Amino acid sequence: MTIASRAAESEAPSKITEQVSHAQAAQSPARGILMLVASTVVFSVCDIITKHLAATLPAAEIAWIRYATFSCIVVPVILLKGGKGLFRAKRPGLQVLRSFGMIGSTLFFTQGLRYLPVAESTAIYFISPILIMALSILFLGESVGWRRWTAALVGLTGVLVVIRPGTDAFQTTALLPLLGATSWAAGAVVTRKMSGSDHPLTTLAYSAVVGCLILSLSLPFSWVTPSGNEIGFALLMGLFFAIGQWFVVLAYRHGNASVIAPFSYVQLIWAGALGYLVFGALPDGWTIVGACIIAASGLYTAYRERVRMLQRRASAEA
Question: Nearest to residue 44, comparing CAs of 111, 103, 117, 128?
Answer without folding.
Answer: 117
